User: What shape does this take?
Amino acid sequence: MLLPNGEKRVVRSVLNIKKPMMFGDYVWDEVGTPAGLTWVRIDLGHQTLSVFRAGHEIGTTVILYGTDGKPTPTGIFPVLFKARTHRSTLYDAQMPFMLRLTEDGVAIHASNVREGSATHGCIGVPLAFAKLLYGQMRRGDQVVIV
Assistant: This one.
C-alpha cells in the first residue's frame, strides 16, 4: 500500500467482510496475528478505518469525520497522547478512548456513529471498536488519513 509520503507498506491480509458495513458496524479479528508494527489507515472517501498489525488487517469500521466547516486533516500523524476518558473543553463533549493526532485536538475517539452525523474534525468510531483500538495503539504509532 502506498502512503501519502511515498512510503510503501506491505499488506499481507485483509479481513473477510461478508456483507456491506453500516453505521455503527465493525469487524475485529486478531486471532493468529503476530506481534508487529501497528498502524491505522483512515479513508475519508469510503468513510472507513482499518487497523493493521504486522501487515495484517485486524479491525475495520465505518467512521464519522469532520464537516466542510471543520474538516478532518489528511496526512500521516503519530499518536501524540492517549486517554481512556477525556472531555473536550472546546465542545464540552465526552471523547472516550481518545487517541490524539494533532496539537489542536484532532483525535480518534468513541462516538455515536450514525448516518447524517459528523464531527468537528475528529474521527468518530463505535465505542466497542474504540476500546479495542485504544488497546492496540501506542504513543508514536502512525495514523494515515487519506
Observations:
- Residues 23 and 115 are 6 Å apart (CA to CA).
- The radius of gyration is 14 Å.
